[in-house]
Amino acid sequence: MIRWFMPVNILVTFLLGSVLGWIIIKITRPPKNIEGLIVGVCSAGNLGNLPIIIIPAICKDKGSPFGDPDVCYQDGISYASLSMALGAIFIWTYVYNIMRISSSKVYIEGNKSSDTITLEASGDDVSESFIEEGSETITQVKGNVDDDAYILLLSKNQSEQKVKVPMLHKMKHQCGMVLSNPNFRGIFSPATLGAIVGFIIGVVPQLRSLMIGSNAPLHVIEDSTSMLGDAAIPTITLIMGANLLKGLKGASTPFWTIIGIIGVRYILLPIFGILIVKGATQLGLVPVDPLYQFILLLQYALPPAMSIGTIAQLFGAGESECSVIMLWTYALASIAVTLWSTYFMWLVS
Question: Which string of DSSP letters, residue by residue, matches 64-86?
Answer without folding.
Answer: -TTS-HHHHHHHHHHHHHHHHHH
